[in-house]
Amino acid sequence: MSDQEPQAPQPTDEHRRLESRIGTWKVECTMYTGPGMPPMTYEAEDVVEALGPFWTVGSFSCEFGGVPFQGRATMGFDPKTGKHVGTWQDTMSPWLCVFEGGLDDNGDLIMSAKSTMPWNGQDTVYHTVETQPSPDQRTFSMSYEMGDEKVLLAEYVYTRKS
After folding, report:
1. Phi-psi domain of 73 (left: phi exceeds 0; alpha: psi -120 through 50; beta: other)
2. CA 99, CA 18: separation in Å to the nearest integer?
3. Does the model's pTM come out above 0.85?
4. How far apart are CA 149 and CA 127, in angstroms?
5. SS3 67
6. 3-state class of 21 per DSSP?
7. Half-sphere CA count of 9, side-chain side, radius 13 A
8. CA 112, CA 139: separation in Å to the nearest integer?
9. Number of Cβ within a 10 Å radius of residue 29
10. What's the pLDDT at 36?
11. At residue 21, what are phi and psi to the nearest 5 degrees?
12. Alpha-carbon distance 91 to 31, whole Å?
């Protein structure tokens, strides 16, 4: 038996990297609705807050196709698995997306999630790539698997407002 007090977990470099997400972001969104269809563009806002030293919580809001849309994202790092982990839930889908992944050699955050497509109820795998070319800009893209193909669904450009 040890006389030492249990040590509280300490943030890792991966947790500290997530701090760069904290703030209010203007988001230029492009959604790809299907082959031969023009992309839809719209603006959104994402407010990202810290949840202690380990997590961020984002509140995404916009008007999509004339309908108010809200989403919530959590992001963290699991030091036990060595993977970044996150969730996404929104007002247009009853399914929770649970993402995991990590940083590639360029420092881009690459994640994937098995979930359901809200427009047809079919299961798929979503893939995301997030880059941060500067402290005040981020990019995000999402694709999904359809058979052997990856289909681009969305591209977002985030610019820090505050």
Report:
1. beta
2. 15
3. yes
4. 12
5. strand
6. helix
7. 11
8. 16
9. 19
10. 85
11. -80, -20
12. 17
Sorted by sequence, the CB contacts under 8 Å of residue 92 that are 6+ apart come out as 64, 69, 118
- Which residues have a Cβ under 8 Å from the Cβ of 117 and sit 6 or more positions away? 123, 124, 144
Is there a contact between 6 and 51 (Cβ–Cβ < 8 Å)?
Answer: no
Strand partners, 124: 115
The C-alpha torsion from 110 through 93 and 31 to 122, rounded to 10°, is: 80
- Which H helix or E strand runs over 74? strand 67-78
Number of helical (H) and strand (E) elements in the chain, helices listed first: 1, 10
What pLDDT does 2 receive? Answer: 60
Low-confidence ranges of the chain (pLDDT < 70): 1-3
- Cβ contact 56:76 at 8 Å: yes
Determine the Cα–Cα distance for residues 47 and 59; give it in Å rounded to an integer: 5
Stretch (H or E) spanning 13: helix 13-18
Beta-bridged to residue 67, according to DSSP, are 64
pLDDT tens per residue, range 87-128: 999 999 998 999 999 999 999 999 999 998 877 888 999 999
Question: Which two three-digit tokens encode residue 2?
Answer: 């040890």
Q: Which amino acid is at 57?
A: V
